[in-house]
Each structure stands twice: as structure tokens, then as C-alpha cells.
Amino acid sequence: MTSLLQPGRGLIAPLTIVAAAAALTATVASAQNLDAGKSPERLFADGCSTCHRSPRGLAKGRFSLTLSWFLKDHYATSSDSAKALAAYLQSVDAPPPRAAAKRGARPSKSAPRPPKPVQSQ
User: Fold this and answer.
1) What is the Cα gyration radius of the chain?
2) What tens digit of pLDDT does each residue of 52-110 get?
3) Number of separate helices (H) and strands (E) present in the chain
4) Closest alpha carbon to 71 in 63, 81, 61, 62
5) Helix, strand and coil in the chain, % to nearest 5
6) DSSP 32
7) pTM here?
8) Is 76 exposed, middle or buried (0-12, 13-18, 19+ CB in 10 A)?
9) How buried is residue 113: exposed, middle or buried, by Cβ count under 10 Å (0-12/13-18/19+)?
């Protein structure tokens, strides 16, 4: 009878089983990022459009960092996709730039109309 403390044939089989189990769990533990390589628009379409018709108004003036943390904790699969989605939501949420407004120029006001004449009966 051989002891576990002495090397011998009785120790090879259990070590082989432990090594095989460690190798199998190491390969299973690596997960795939299904959002890798997707554009922020695609991320919104795949994950958010079932509940939200439009991305407008979802950022609601939040800071980029807190919005990406929220998305990472609740919806995104990685911090990179959460940051990209947060940047997209903020870019859509921003008001469109004014084309007519230029630095130093005043907006043109329409000329006031004269009052309607009073009709006597």
C-alpha cells in the first residue's frame, strides 16, 4: 500500500484528474463579449429599442461618467460598450447647433405689423 505522501503510481491518477479539471474550467471561464465591434447605434437598436422608441432624452443631461457606470451595471456587457453607448446618447440628446446664430450677430426680428383697422358698422 502506498501513501499519498510518497510519490508512486497511486498519485498519478488523482493528479491527472485535477489537471484535466483545471484545464477545462480555465477554457470555459473565458467569456465572449457579444457587443465587441458594434456601433453605438447598433447597441441601442439591439438592446434598448424594445423599450425605447428613440434615443433622444435618455441621457437627460447626466454626466458621461455616471451614465456609463449606470449602463455598465444594468445594460452593457463591457465598460467600452457602456462608454460608447453613453457618448451616443449624449450626442443625440444635445440640442442641434444653430445655423443662423453667429458670434456677435443679433437674430433678426420680423417687423411689427400695424394693427387691424377698426371697422365701423
Assistant:
1) 32
2) 888 888 888 888 899 999 999 988 888 899 999 999 999 988 666 665 455 555 666 66
3) 4, 0
4) 81
5) 45, 0, 55
6) P
7) 0.51
8) buried
9) exposed
**Distance, C-alpha 81 to centroid of its chain:** 5
3-state SS class at 106: coil
Which grid coordinates belong to 34? 457579444
For the stretch 28-39, pLDDT in tens is 555 666 777 888
Nearest to 62 by CA among 39, 35, 33, 93: 93
Q: Which residues contact 68 (CB under 8 A, 6 or more apart)?
A: 79, 82, 83, 85, 86
Which three-class secondary structure state does DSSP give residue 109?
Answer: coil
The amino acid present at 97, given as its one-letter code, is: P
CA distance 89 to 109: 34
